[in-house]
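Morning!

This is the sequence you dropped in the shared folder:
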Amino acid sequence: MQQYLDLCSEILKHGAEKNDRTGTGTRSVFGAQMRFDLRQGFPLVTTKKVALRLIVEELLWILSGSTNNNDLVAKSVHIWDEWAEKDGSLGPIYGQQWRSWSGQSGPIDQIAEAVNLIMANPDSRRIVVSAWNVDDLPKMKLSPCHALFQFYVANGRLSCQLYQRSADMFLGVPFNIASYALLTHMMAHACDLEVGDFIWTGGDCHIYSNHYEQMWLQTSRTPWLPPQLSKSQMLESVPSGRGMESLMAFNVGSFYLKGYAPHPAIKGDVAV
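The structure's back. Tokens below.
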């Protein structure tokens, strides 16, 4: 994850000072990219501790199609608490856009369509899932930071590229990279493929002013070798190659990281 630390250092030293929606203030750059070979390890930062369980729970929640924060709270996950209504409502965010996009002819399950395309037409350049539904944006409690992602199949390997329009480099991006890397593993397993690369592309890549101190600390630490995601654990819990049946069979117990020994956690407040 040295490339992540290098980008954070670049923003700290040379980023533009900008105002933002939250009123906190940021230092940012526009346009950046990182590529992670998933065969070489799982891209979870080691310069601070990140909880894999929270990443898995949120991803499974989105894949289920839920947009209600109460489903996460019931699992002791509080990622979305700051934006949820008292009844848990978050509006038509990721879960609805991925699994039930509102089309003229009815709801569209973009994840199912992506799985079907990967398996039936792997050379397609249209294996894209979008969360940026312009008509639904005003109804969302938080507009999608992860606007869209695309899958690519070559030589029996599945790769994924995410475009993240707004990238909170301290709190969000380490979590987001791991989440989409995990999704790539899950989709590959469901489609009976090996994993390739995960490419993270950022738009406004920023560090909030209340995270400068924490980020200086993190970039001063030496990164360790990345952990490995146990393939045997996935194979034991979820049958491969069955498309959506395989994808929806994943649960928290399907994933195990080998060799994750990070530096201590670094706390930081969410900018709301």
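Headline: The CA atoms of residues 53 and 129 lie 24 Å apart.

More detail when I'm at my desk.
O.
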